[in-house]
Amino acid sequence: QSFTAAVGGQGGVAIQKTITFYPDGTFTREGFVGASYTTTDTGTSLGNPVAGVTTSSESSNSGTYQIQGNAITFNYADGQVSTDFFFVIPGEDPNNPGAIRIGGWDFLLQ
Prior knowledge:
With 110 residues, this protein is mainly beta. The protein has no helices and 8 strands. The relative contact order is 0.17.
């Protein structure tokens, strides 16, 4: 599971990605992104809210995966294929890591 959030004076964005790997070589991938922004009568975070917008989106897909060295290839059920570099986060026990990086995302292992 990977989670990223960015918050500013009048808004923010949150992204969550979850990949579940199964011993039979299949996976499911789920994702969520949400964003919110509010404007105020002063144009700063200290003013009274006068308007705002919030949006979110979820996605889910699945397929098979293959690991070769430090490359993981995802073969999605819709025919899409992607290959990412992955490794155990430095400082983690390589035999029982708590976190890995896939592409540009850090994932906590559960």
